[in-house]
Amino acid sequence: RNLLDRDTFSKSDPICVLYTQAIGNKEWREFGRTEVIDNTLNPDFVRKFIMDYFFEERENLRFDFYDVDSKSPNLSKHDFLGQMFCTLGEIVGSQGSRLEKSIVGIPGKKCGTVIVTAEELGCCRDSVLMQFCANKLDKKDFFGKSDPFLVFHRSNEDGSFTICHKTEVVKNTLNPVWQAFKISVRALCNGDYDRTIKVEVYDWDRDGSHDFIGEFTTSYRELSRGQSQFNVYEVINPKKKGKKKKYVNSGTVTLLSFLIETEVSFLDYIKGGTQINFTVAIDFTASNGNPSQPTSLHYMNPYQLNAYGMALRAVGEIIQDYDSDKMFPALGFGARLPPDGRVSHEFALNGNPQNPYCHGIDGVMEAYYRSLKCVQLYGPTNFAPVINHVARYAASVKDGSQYFVLLIITDGVISDMAQTKESIVNASKLPMSIIIVGVGPAEFDAMEELDGDVVRISSRGRFAERDIVQFVPFRDYIDRSGNHVLSMARLAKDVLAEIPEQFLSYMRVRGIKPSPAPPPYTPPIHVLQTQI
């Protein structure tokens, strides 16, 4: 909208060029170009860019605009109209996945704005619940009837077949009814509704030499008609058919039911307006070492971030794209507070217990450094109070409109293990996840136990309803050269990768569906007033 006009006799002929940034060397690479739209300062580009999206990765984007003056593909031959920088997460995290941002890059000039919308390609999110039965199958066993099961194959581009599902075996019957099963449309036919699906019927044998009863073919489109005369299939054994003139079939298989379920995705909720609230809790216990000493994990180095600062920035920069107000509560635990030196396990880093919110990750960093100067590192290391602090907020909005992520950064020596387990088991019923980043050289066995990936966490005989804790040791991400950049992206990736699934597991258990997205943006149409 409102691009600069660079042509003397007519309006600009704009094109948009998208660049992405490589993770390692931060070099910008051209990803693609839109078409050129002649003679307009308000182009609606048609050509779309299809990109991979990962919640846990920060994908930097740059949109450059040019006024095209000739057929040359070389961009330096055309007039630059400005550029816009953002991340893919910023677009996806905006209301209705629609981001409007100013175009910059030409000093002293207003370059207009760009509107970017994103939508998730949904072709392969469906899955199907199907049930089959069979009648009068051939008897294959000497002593009893057959023990039939079905094997489903999808066909590949080259005509070969890939197995995609096996039913259970139904013992000793020629008229089996198999249990309903669920399979993704992608696995069943690769999203191609007319592709052949081959189904084989076998008689199970204990020694693994299952006898072939017969086969039939169908397609997703045929199956989708549901239970009808079209979905009764003759099971044919080609060998028998060749030998016996009177051969009719080896039985029939009937489709009993066919239900399509669309799997909702993390992005459906984000697009519908669910907010992710991010809270930080920092370990201020004495085991971290004196902040004025270079050996301390809290060392205030004027030239580079300490471990706490790095972990905070790596995780915070990605998650802030999904939080519209960018206000983050930042808490500390395990310190003695001025003026009276009382020990606190949930204090506001900005010194304001009524309003612990900091603006953006920069605001959190500022409050962290301020706190280090005025509190005294002490102990013990209690996690339960900060977990309960976030849980109180999470308990007040269970309708799916908000989800809470608590980042605890700690040196890992925990004093209130039993209380923390109790808090986590209680929190597993709430819309929240906990990320623990362990800094320093300690043994993190207790943290691994809280992570619950190996053994589901329990307290007083009650097990956590879902896995909500993700633990990572910070030392795994610092390379020896001290070049932290590559490892920061990996840290964020490993820490955040489980969040979308934890988020979805809460919504599923509670039966919460995503809100409809706001209507897509349509450019205003100028109506000509006519008098009748």
UniProtKB/TrEMBL annotation:
Alphabetical GO biological process terms: cellular response to calcium ion
- Where would I find the VWFA domain in this sequence? 277-478
Residue ranges of the C2 domain? 1-101, 110-233
Alphabetical list of Gene3D superfamilies matching this protein: C2 domain (2.60.40.150)
Q: Does the keyword Metal-binding belong to this entry?
A: yes
Report one GO cellular component.
Answer: plasma membrane
Write out the entry's keywords from A to Z: Calcium, Metal-binding, Repeat
Question: What superkingdom does the record give?
Answer: Eukaryota
Show the GO MF annotations.
calcium-dependent phospholipid binding; metal ion binding
Among Pfam families, the record links this protein to:
C2, Copine
PANTHER family (alphabetical):
COPINE, COPINE-8
Give the family from UniProt: Belongs to the copine family.
The protein in question is named CPNE8 protein
From which organism does this entry originate? Leucopsar rothschildi (Bali myna)
What gene does this protein come from? Cpne8
